[in-house]
């Protein structure tokens, strides 16, 4: 006998009289709602075995995308809790909207019920043991999908930002190159203007010098005329004006 507490125990009185479909009350295991259903004389495809199934309850209330992955097995016991029959462990079954029920069509041969002492007081007791491997509710799946969408949007946004930044850097480089070219051209123009200004200044200075020379020449000419006049006047009066140049000569 298994010492583990069952996830659920179904007791059916007057079992030998049962022939139609039987459904258990709903029970909770692993945070999920379940129920058992069975065909005492077998389902439509089997008439020599008891057919037993485990099913997710209230699937119409679950959101789209729900899933239940479990391991489970069944045990038949008597009123003294003696194990009479145990199914093999049914592992890794995925319960979902498409397949909400799993079980065994040939769970127990009907001939077993004819064995002496198999049923006590015509009561059948079935226990089910469930281990939840994974339970996904629709809302969890929806949250997961939303997170994935946000990640995709964020990834696309970062990619677009990088592409925009790359283009921006490229444009900045082009603008920088253009600015450098403009600066170079402006520098050349400034140099040319400086040369032109320098030439103008030199020409102006030359003109000024020439004008000064002409002015000096005029002054010297006037002075010479004045000296000649004074000399002539002195000679007429009996005086003689000595010219240093004449002395040297």
UniProtKB/TrEMBL annotation:
Residues 183-226 form a coiled coil. CDD domains: MATH (cd00121). It holds the Pfam family MATH_2. The keyword Nuclease does not apply. It comes from the Eukaryota. Keywords: Coiled coil. SUPFAM superfamilies: TRAF domain-like. Residues 5-130 form the MATH domain. InterPro entries: MATH/TRAF_dom (IPR002083), MCC (IPR050804), TRAF-like (IPR008974). This is (rape) hypothetical protein.
């Amino acid at each position: 006998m298994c010492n583990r507490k069952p996830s659920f125990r179904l007791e059916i009185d007057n079992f030998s009289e049962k022939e139609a479909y039987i459904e258990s009350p709903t029970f909770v295991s692993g945070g999920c709602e379940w129920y058992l259903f069975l065909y005492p004389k077998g389902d439509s495809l089997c008439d020599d075995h008891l057919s037993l199934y485990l099913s997710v309850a209230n699937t119409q209330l679950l959101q789209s995308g729900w899933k239940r992955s479990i391991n489970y097995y069944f045990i038949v016991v008597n009123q003294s809790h003696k194990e009479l029959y145990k199914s093999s462990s049914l592992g890794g079954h995925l319960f979902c909207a498409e397949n909400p029920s799993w079980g065994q069509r040939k769970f127990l041969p009907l001939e077993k019920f004819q064995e002496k002492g198999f049923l006590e007081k015509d009561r059948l007791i079935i226990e089910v043991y469930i281990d939840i491997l994974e339970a996904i509710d629709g809302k969890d799946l929806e949250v997961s999908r939303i997170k994935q969408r946000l990640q995709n949007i964020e990834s696309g946004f970062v990619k677009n930002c990088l592409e925009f930044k790359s283009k921006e850097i490229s444009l900045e480089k082009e603008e920088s190159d253009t600015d450098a070219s403009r600066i170079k051209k402006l520098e050349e123009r400034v140099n040319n203007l400086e040369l032109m200004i320098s030439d103008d200044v030199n020409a102006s200075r030359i003109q000024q010098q020439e004008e000064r020379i002409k002015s000096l020449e005029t002054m010297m000419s006037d002075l010479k005329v004045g000296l000649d006049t004074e000399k002539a006047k002195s000679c007429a009066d009996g005086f003689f004006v000595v010219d240093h140049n004449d002395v040297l000569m």
